[in-house]
Amino acid sequence: MTKPAHNPELDEHPASNAEKDPDNWVTGGEPMTGAQASYLTTLTEEAHVEPPAEDLTKAEASKQIDAAKGELGR
Length: 74
Known about the structure:
- This protein is an all-alpha fold.
- Helix content is 38%, strand content 0%.
- Helix 1 runs parallel beside helix 2.
C-alpha cells in the first residue's frame, strides 16, 4: 500500500506554511490585484499618506499593505 500524499490542511499547525515572502511568490511580478489596490488605497487614506502607485506588482503591493497595517497598528 502506498503512503497517501501530504495534505497541508491536516497539519497540526496549518498556518505554519501559509506565510511566504512576497519576493518568492511565483506571481509576485504580476500587476497588483484590484483587491490589493482597493485595500492599499483605503489604508493610505486612513494613514494620511500618498496613495499607492498604480503600477505596483503583487509582491510590492503586499509589502506596502503590511507596512501600512503596521503603521496603523493592525
